[in-house]
Design a protein that fits this description.
119 residues; Nucleotidyltransferase, domain 5; 3 helices; 40% helix; globular; 5S rRNA binding
């Protein structure tokens, strides 16, 4: 029986999240979600179950920059780093979910690091 793309993605996401949660107990989580058109990031406190900061390309000022989604992703990364600093957060762990660490996801992570987040 062949696995569908969705099943493989879900398996990969659970594998990544479980390893991260096991090794980063008590830290905040920078969670990424990427679709074909948009990318979003959330800074989540799993202990309290609250989102402390969020940024997305669906916001008007962070929207698509032409047709280059990598530029938009880097704007989201810079915005999430700025909002995390306002919330008093400097350190977290990067949860890429089931997405591969290249392209838009890598651009977001690099911009967040340049903005001052440590992960």
């Amino acid at each position: 029986m062949a696995n569908s793309k969705r099943t493989l993605f879900l398996k990969r996401r659970l594998r990544v999240r479980n390893k991260l949660r096991k090794n980063n107990v008590g830290k905040l989580r920078l969670s990424i979600h990427r679709s074909n058109k948009n990318i979003s990031a959330q800074l989540i406190d799993d202990v309290q179950g609250k989102t402390l900061a969020a940024a997305s390309t669906m916001e008007k000022d962070l929207g698509m920059v032409g047709k280059n989604n990598v530029e938009a992703a880097s704007k989201v990364g810079a915005a999430i780093a700025e909002r995390a600093k306002k919330a008093g957060v400097e350190e977290c762990y990067f949860d890429r979910g089931g997405f591969l660490f290249h392209g838009k996801v890598k651009a977001l992570a690099d911009a967040a690091r340049e903005g001052g987040l440590k992960f």
